[in-house]
Amino acid sequence: MYKYIIKRLMMLIPVILGISFIVFSIISLTPGDPARIILGNHASEEAVENLRQELGLNEPFIKRYISYVGSSIKGDFGSSYRTGKPVFEDIFGKFPLTLKLALFSMLLATALGIPIGIISAVKRYSIIDGASMIFALLMTSMPSFWIGLMLILIFSIKLDIFPVTGVENIKGYVLPTITLASFSMAIITRMTRSTMLEVIRQDYVRTARAKGASTKRIIFKHCIRNALIPVVTVIGINFGILLGGTVITETVFALPGLGTLLVSAIRMKDMPIVMGAVIFLAIAFSIINLLVDLIYAVIDPRVKAQYSR
Amino acid sequence: MSQTLLNIKNLYVNYETDEETVRALNGVNLKLNKGEMLGLVGETGAGKTTTALSILKLLPKDIGIITNGQIEFDGKDLTKLKEAELRNIRGERISMIFQDPMTSLNPVLTVGEQIAEVIELHKTLDKKQIESKVNEMLELVGIPAKRKKEFPHQFSGGMKQRVIIAMALSCDPELLIADEPTTALDVTIQAQVLNMMEELKHKLNTAMLLITHDLGVVAQICDKVAIMYAGEIIESGTAEDIFEAKEHHPYTVGLFGSIPNLIEKTNRLKPILGLMPDPTDLPQGCKFHPRCPQCMEICRKVHPDDRQTETHTIKCHLYK
Ligand SMILES: Nc1ncnc2c1ncn2[C@@H]1O[C@H](COP(=O)(O)OP(=O)(O)OP(=O)(O)O)[C@@H](O)[C@H]1O
Ligand SMILES: [Mg+2]
């Protein structure tokens, strides 16, 4: 098992090299001059040229990439072109908010999605099932910015229960969390329902019934663990997406998270920040994936057997 | 002298799917006494598994429907029992060995846990007693008790089948339904399992419904035989009736012709010509008439009744 974890962590190296190269090329090869953007349209050609020199932008692309990789191995990811602050100071400053939002909304989505999915499957074609499937369909088809705006309109402006923006206290997290959770929750509900329906039809469930086990016991002891195996993957993927993809919600609620930082850095061609944030997210994403695979091994003995190799 | 344990009367079962209605059982009559072993034989698709599942009311939900008939077990009609009452019968008084060992065990629970469950459900024993019972059952089917901590994927098909057998036997049932219990096993183990089941019959007076394709097995251990065709029992009787009597249903004759006769050294299998009728569109009259070498005019129009002589019953117009 430890060997497996080490192996997986080693696999991060080529992944990150690949991702960083792709992102580096995209930023370098797309039009737009960071020095010009930083100094603005009115700055003199000379000042811009000086800044380009200073930032090393005149070097050939490959050379710049190699020197970036070289210094980042030593732990130096450079400083923001814009603020001059070290990259990771910026990222670590913004990340906790994004992480909290992602974590809260995944918890909410899982805590509601799994039980609703199970109930829907067990009481298939019932009113509860119909209602939750319609709800799930609505949640996947409504864009999150719209859900966010509607929530603000109802709960902040009309009812004045939650703040429109800001996360000074826990109340501020409520609406953004719901906004972010809605899509994942719908996906988790539907996934749980369909895998549960699949599992209920399996022969081993019939065996359990033949033993005289009650429906409740069969669901809890025989079905849920089997049904959750694919759901765990979905939860992991959604969590990863949320870590990098809270931009829209952060914008709607005017929250300064990692998503907002990344988007504005891309717009400003702030290369060190973009690279730092992308690498950071790639690592976070891979670690989540690894955790998902480890959870697999806990749920499914067949998978565990593979990992010990 | 012998008491009736199971009495299936005029049982009809349909599988109703969106596209079609499969008429799987069409008036099955079957009687089994305490301590008796009944062999149920028939081609694939005849409705053997369906009969077995109906007894335990384990037909697929909303699809497999009992449309008519009674299943009396120890005087009570199982088709009318509530789910809670059935739970006390399943696993304890009637247990079942399923046809497909590969899919009949839960992949995420250990073999020991799965055997323990049935004991836990029906016996008031403490943890230690349950564990020792699990060990005992595993040893009984020839699996070292220490392997109970392993998962089904670590077992071979034959071993899985033995686990299922251990599970089915652990509460000393009055009726054991075994759906092709030996198909997945190699010949030596097959013999062991059959011996084990026979022993059980003598020791605990367990009645058995043995579903099989193997007429050799039937001849070897069954007291009674029932032959099934297109959801009906077309011939039934004691083993002597089936293997030695002069008069038989033409289907039985064909079925017996289709196993290689080892004594007479006829090497060639003689399969019955034609196919089983489509259960969504059954022929009129006798369901076997399209394939019957002795088909008469009446067979095409009138469904034959049972002709009973002592213990031997035949459903055919040839015998009046
Ligand atoms: N779940 C189902 N849905 C629809 N039809 C079914 C279903 N299960 C069985 N059938 C049909 O019912 C008929 C009887 O099937 P059954 O499984 O009882 O046969 P069997 O005698 O056990 O055959 P085998 O020897 O192959 O196990 C077949 O025509 C089969 O196709
Ligand atoms: Mg079958």
Helix content of chain A: over 70%
How many beta-strand runs of chain A?
0
CATH topology of the largest domain in chain B: Rossmann fold
The secondary structure category of chain B is alpha/beta
User: How much β-strand is present in the residues of chain B?
Assistant: 15-25%
Q: Give the overall form of chain A.
A: flat
**Which second-level CATH architecture of the domain at 95-308 in chain A applies?**
Orthogonal Bundle
CATH topology title of the domain at 95-308 in chain A: MetI-like fold
Spell out the key features of this protein:
heterodimer, A: 309 residues, mainly alpha, MetI-like fold, 14 helices, B: 320 residues, alpha/beta, Rossmann fold, 2 domains, eight-stranded mixed sheet, four-stranded antiparallel sheet, 12 strands, globular, binds adenosine-5'-triphosphate, binds magnesium ion
Brief summary:
The complex is a heterodimer of chains A (309) and B (320). Chain A has 309 residues and is mostly helical. Chain A is 79% helix and 0% strand.
Topology of this structure?
The complex is a heterodimer of chains A (309) and B (320).
Chain A: H1 2-29, H2 34-39, H3 45-55, H4 61-73, H5 87-122, H6 127-141, H7 144-158, H8 171-200, H9 203-210, H10 215-244, H11 247-252, H12 258-267, H13 271-299, H14 301-307
Chain B: E1 4-16, E2 21-33, E3 37-41, H1 48-55, E4 64-73, E5 76-77, H2 83-89, E6 94-97, H3 111-122, H4 127-140, H5 157-169, E7 175-179, H6 187-204, E8 207-212, H7 215-221, E9 224-229, E10 232-238, H8 239-244, H9 250-257, H10 297-301, E11 306-309, E12 312-315
Parallel strand pairs in B: 3-8, 3-9, 6-7, 7-8
Antiparallel strand pairs in B: 1-2, 1-4, 4-5, 9-10, 10-12, 11-12
The complex binds adenosine-5'-triphosphate (ATP) and magnesium ion.
Adenosine-5'-triphosphate binds at residues 15, 17, 22, 24, 42, 44-50, 60, 63, 99, 279 of chain B.
